[in-house]
Amino acid sequence: MKIILTGSLGNIGQPLATALVQQGHAVTVISSQPARQAAIEALGALAAIGSVEDADFLAATFAGAEALYLMVPPNFAVADSRAYHRRVGGSYVRAIGQAGVRRVVQLSSWGAHLAAGTGGILGSHDVEEILAAVPGLALTHLRPTSFYTNMFSFIGMIKAVGTVGVNYPGSTRVAFVHPLDIAAAAAAELTTPAAPGRHVRYVASDERTADEVAQVLGAAIGQPNLPWVALTDAQMQHNLTSHGLPAARAAEIVAIYASTRTGALGADYEQHKPPLGQVKLEDFAREFAAAF
């Protein structure tokens, strides 16, 4: 199959591209960075260098593809992340229309079923709706849960104050996912025919309480009594902005965790739970310890 991947060689893109190439597929990886071309080609894939906001570039790259993996690359330079998501989503739709591709797997997020109250996930909701409006598309929304890799942001807090936590309590049970499990799910979807219409696939690796997260991470770094401390929304906002994050972006993160606290974020996931993936919290804890 000819498969096009957006997102360059990130935490998901690299294992996804590697798996598809090893399966014998003709893979093209889109990146905005010319410096990534050599690494992409070293995997056995083709590199297409350009912007996902350039619909004409995308259409030319998509031509002849049998499946597309679409994500919105992070862009912390934009003032309005939701508007940025909409722009990229619109660019994807125009390119899909020009190229005539019928199979799309979109990297979305749990909580994307909601149109309000989830902060930084609202952009994923918007892109889902934009793509779903394309007639005749066989579209899968891949909705991973909370990324283990977000926990790397705890390292500074642990070193500074000896605690870990965000604005939900330690008793909160959260579904976590590793990029490798997301890549495996994406590879399966991209290489499996789907009927026209809208499909949703959740991806999760483990389900643990926040207190268990602190216990497992603490044990991995030699701090077995590491406590989880529930912050207020105001404390969380202050911590993020005091470390240089723009207020609007900080508010998006606060809203994500607040919706985790209320249960709104994971409500649809709870109704459509997938089989859990391979990478458990204890496995990720070894990566965390290495980074610590």
What does this structure look like?
Residues 7-122 form the NAD(P)-binding domain. InterPro entries: Ergot_Alk_Oxidoreductase, NAD(P)-bd_dom, NAD(P)-bd_dom_sf. The structure is a single chain. The protein has a domain at 2-144 and 178-203: NAD(P)-binding Rossmann-like Domain (Rossmann fold, 3-Layer(aba) Sandwich), CATH 3.40.50.720. Helix content is 43%, strand content 16%. The protein is globular. The chain has 292 residues and is α/β, with parallel strands linked by helices. The chain has a seven-stranded parallel beta sheet with strand order 3-2-1-4-5-6-9, sandwiched between helices. Strands 7-8-10 form a three-stranded mixed beta sheet. The termini are far apart. It has helices at residues 13-22, 37-42, 55-62, 81-99, 122-132, 154-161, 179-190, 210-220, 233-242, 247-262, 267-271, 281-291; strands at 2-5, 26-31, 46-49, 67-70, 103-107, 138-144, 146-147, 173-177, 197-203, 206-209. The protein has twelve helices and ten strands.
Features:
292 residues; alpha/beta; Rossmann fold; three-stranded mixed beta sheet; 12 helices; globular; NAD(P)-bd_dom_sf
Question: How would you summarize the topology of this molecule?
Answer:
Blueprint: E1 2-5, H1 13-22, E2 26-31, H2 37-42, E3 46-49, H3 55-62, E4 67-70, H4 81-99, E5 103-107, H5 122-132, E6 138-144, E7 146-147, H6 154-161, E8 173-177, H7 179-190, E9 197-203, E10 206-209, H8 210-220, H9 233-242, H10 247-262, H11 267-271, H12 281-291
Parallel strand pairs: 1-2, 1-4, 2-3, 4-5, 5-6, 6-9, 7-8
Antiparallel strand pairs: 8-10
Helix pairs in contact: 1-7, 3-4, 4-5, 8-12, 9-10
InterPro entries: Ergot_Alk_Oxidoreductase, NAD(P)-bd_dom, NAD(P)-bd_dom_sf
Pfam families: NAD_binding_10
Domain NAD(P)-binding: 7-122
